[in-house]
Amino acid sequence: MKKKFGELNPEKKHKRFAGKWQYGEVLFGIIIVSLLILGTCWAYIEKQELLEIDVPNQPPANIKLQQLLHKPDTFKVSYRKINQFSQSFFNNWNASSEEIQYQVLSGPDNMDFDNATGVLRWTPNIDHRGTQIIKIRLFSGKEEKILSNIRPDFAAVVGEGYYCLFPAYAIQTPDTVYETLIQFPITVSSQKHILGTDVMGRDLMSSLILGSKWTVLPGFIVAFISVFLGAVLGGIAGYFGGHVDRMLGLIAQLFAAFPSLLIIFLVAAIFNFNIYLIMIAIGILAFPQIALTVKNKVMVLKNRQFIEAAQELGLRDMEILWKDIMWYNLRSMLLSFMTYGFALAILMEVTLSYLNLGVQGKSESWGNLLKYGREQMYQGQYWLVFIPVVAVLVSIMGFYLLGDGIRKLSMVEDAQYE
Amino acid sequence: MMLKLIQKMFFAVVLFFAAGILISVLLALVPDVYLDQTFTERFVSNVTVFVNFDYSHSEFGEYTLMDVILNRGVNSFSLIIMSLGCILLIGIPLGYFASMRKHVFFTSYWEKAIHVISSCPILIWALFFNFIFINNHILPTYDSMLEAHGVLKVVFFMLPALTVAIGDGILSDVIRMMKEATDKASTEEYLRVLRSRNVPVAKHLIRSLLPAVGSIISNKITYLIGGIVVVEYVFNWKGLGYQILSSISTTGAKNYNFVLGASVLLVGVVVFVHLLSDLATILSDPRIRTSQKI
User: Fold this and answer.
1) Under a CB-based contact definition with an 8 Å cutoff, are residues A335 and A399 in contact?
2) Which residues of chain A are within 8 Å of residue B31 when distances are taken between CB atoms?
3) What CA–CA distance (Å, rounded) separates A292 from A22?
4) Per-residue confidence band for B149, with pLDDT thresholds at 50, 70 and 90
5) Where are the domains of chain B?
6) CB count, 10 Å around CB of A40?
7) Phi and psi of A39, rounded to 5°?
8) What is the DSSP string of chain B?
9) What's the burial of A87, exposed, middle or buried (CB within 10 Å: 0-12/13-18/19+)?
10) Which residue has the higher pLDDT, B236 or A12?
11) In whole numbers, what is the pLDDT of chain B averaged over residues?
């Protein structure tokens, strides 16, 4: 028979969706889900140990100042792993240290500054965790031109095992060119913290692990409620029609007219920002879409021949609906909706916590990490936002890929049986 | 046809009142230690304010509630209109070309790329844009907008509007819906006849797609309004969403009457856009217009 244009070869039909990618998607999703569950378990069991903050005693840290050519109106921010950086320290050095003198205006208490070499020695201890601000005044009586072109680009804490960052921060060129003020924060953390520390000196990795507990249980609440209500009401509306169908249509239209984020805000205020109760509301708000999809699927399936055969055999309607339609034909779709529910829950938790409406206090939810890291982001400590963002994106993507993979694999099975 | 139009309008009014009553119920449930009223009293007072449209009392110093709602509303609705513009300028043409240029090798790839880009949440896009453009002073945001003149104000809207338009899968949804609508419309019989007679079909096809564009906009306006709340907070944009957030959250001053007024305004806009889309569909499609079925 001549094949029509655009028609796929029926013999190769089952190969349309089959491929390694679907298994990869499911595998990736399963890995992400397992990591989140493991993180949650760990967060509940080992909370005290994870929260411990430690800055071990290390050899003294040295801080030097470097001059680079001045570019007006630009503030370059640089972050470096100091152990690698200290050797290439004197590039672009235009003025010798004799021409410029330094005066430390403020800094940590046990800091020691050598005026001749411009080396600052400082051993951070447990009290210095977080951000320390050091103010240094540069002045010279000899060369006016040099100082007018100064743009400090910092600098180093060189201590074995210390990562430090040096945003070249707000150099103010004064009216007179004889002096200038440098002010920059130094964040103390040690190699023990793989992803660095936040502004309070807490380990970011531990915070991420602790934050994963706000993804699993809320996600399960949203997924279960939305899929349960969607399957029950959508199934009944699709199979029997009638009042349930009409009610479902009205609810869907009412929810479609209402920006759901506004309802969630009000619900959050009603339940005093309890994240679990908010998630119940999100589940209820999410169910009409699922119910409508399920309804359409059920309406298509109930006209198929195997349903007619089941009815002829005398099976009860509810049995046909739940067993033949829902369980045998729609379970993979419902399962993929559950994974989307998890993704929605993570997204809502992050958004609400960021907007001060979700997890309250200084708990380590991912949204709170973003919220507290945002101010630091402008000072150059970008990883305080970057790493939670990556965690959020990877988990959302993991859940989406898991759902998509499950769906496509079931489609492969369907195509093979047809 | 008139019966259909009246039915749609009646339904929109009912929906608007239902939404208003839902907001009143929710606001009456919000615990407030400063108000010594029962749930029923608060509900009745909320409904009274909603039905009478009485926002003349003052809770913002010398300004009435209506002044504040209108002042903030101008900023928010400018943002919504700009983001709708982004969707119309980016999403709709891309969806159209994705359908028309299906056989082109790159089409599926850029579609997938946009899908991945667009599925990133609005909050994260907003943070990203904030970090790249505002931190480096490349593009301005709200702060100095009042000093700008005329068309230059558009520059201030670019980042927030673009963020709302592409985040949370809105752009990829629009492209997908437009592609499906174009696919469906381009296989109609009358277009095949036109093609067989060598008549250019683009004009007829685009005309038949206009109701689809309307339905896409009415579908997405709810998401856009949800999105601007987040974007206004991140970009420090003084609009309705920003004010609603600070009226509800733990750190801001509580002001539930403002929440009622602003929510009713936003819901009203959504219902109005839905109604316009329905009416446009009825008026433009002769099959629906002339059918006897209601």
Assistant:
1) no
2) 269-270, 272
3) 26
4) confident
5) 1-54+260-294, 77-249
6) 19
7) -60, -40
8) -HHHHHHHHHHHHHHHHHHHHHHHHHHHHS--TT----HHHHHHHHHHHHHHT---S-SBTTB-HHHHHHHHHHHHHHHHHHHHHHIIIIIHHHHHHHHHTTTSTTHHHHHHHHHHHHTS-HHHHHHHHIIIIITTTSS--GGGGGGS-GGGHHHHHHHHHHHHHHGGGHHHHHHHHHHHHHHHHHT-HHHHHHHHTT---HHHHHHHHHHHHHHHHHHHHHHHHHHHHHHHHHTT--SHHHHHHHHHSSSSPP-HHHHHHHHHHHHHHHHHHHHHHHHHHHHH-HHHHH-S--
9) exposed
10) B236
11) 84
Q: Name, in order, each residue with C-beta under 8 angstroms of B274's C-beta and a sequence gap of 6 or more.
A: A256, A257, B12, B15, B218, B221
CA distance A100 to chain B (A): 30
Nearest to A93 by CA among A128, A129, A68: A68
Average pLDDT value for residue range B36-48? 85
- Residue position matching structure tokens 């759902």: A403
For residue A176, what pLDDT is reported? 36
Q: What is the pTM of this model?
A: 0.77
Contact A70, A150 (CB under 8 A): yes
Does residue A155 have a cis bond before it (omega within 30 degrees)? yes
- Structure tokens that stand for B269 in this block: 């806009």
Alpha-carbon gap, residue A151 to A192, rounded angstroms: 33
pLDDT computed for residue A90 by the predictor: 29
Pair of tokens at residue B205: 């096809």
Q: In this structure, what token pair is assigned to residue B21?
A: 């009553």
- φ, ψ of residue A330 to 5 degrees: the values are -115, 5
What is the rounded distance in angstroms from the CA atom of residue B121 to the CA atom of residue A356?
17
Residue A257 near residue B267 (C-beta atoms within 8 A): yes
Answer for the pair A121, A114: CB distance below 8 angstroms, yes or no: yes
Q: What's A14's DSSP letter?
A: G
- CA-based nearest residue in chain B for residue A254: B15
Is B250 within 8 Å of A360 when comparing Cβ atoms?
yes
Chain B hits for A253, CB-CB cut-off 8 Å, are 15
- Cβ separation B245–A357 shorter than 8 A: yes
CA–CA distances in Å: residue A205 to residues A43, A140, B173: 12, 45, 35
The complex's ipTM works out to 0.88
3 state DSSP class of A394? helix
Stronger pLDDT, A93 or B189, i.e. the higher one: B189
**Mutation target vs B (from A25, A258, A277, A366; most B CBs, 10 A cutoff):** A258
* Numbered residues of chain A with Cβ closer than 8 Å to any chain B Cβ: 253-254, 256-263, 265-270, 272-273, 347, 350-351, 354-357, 360, 370, 374, 377-378, 382, 385, 389, 392-393, 396-397, 400
The residue to which tokens 């009358």 are assigned: B190
> Partners of A181 in the beta sheet?
A137, A172
Contact A385 B127 (CB under 8 A): yes
Q: Which alpha helices (DSSP H) does A46-95 contain, by range?
A: 47-51, 82-85
What's the confidence (pLDDT) of residue A130? 55
pLDDT at residue B206 in the model: 85
Q: DSSP string spanning A37-55?
A: HHHHHHHHHSHHHHH----
* Residue A200, pLDDT score: 64
- The answer to whether B79 and B237 are in contact (CB under 8 A) is yes
> Which member of A254, A265, A389 has the closest CB to residue B19?
A254
Helix (H) or strand (E) holding A404: helix A383-417
Mean pLDDT, each 10-residue run in order, chain A (418 residues): 51 53 83 89 70 41 33 27 27 40 69 62 59 62 42 35 31 39 49 64 79 90 96 94 90 85 90 91 93 93 90 91 90 92 93 88 84 78 83 92 86 57
Of A59, A57, A61, give the one whose Cα is nearest residue A157: A61
Distance of alpha carbon A256 from alpha carbon A236, whole angstroms? 21
Q: For residue B203, give the nearest of B215, B185, B184, B178 by alpha carbon.
A: B185
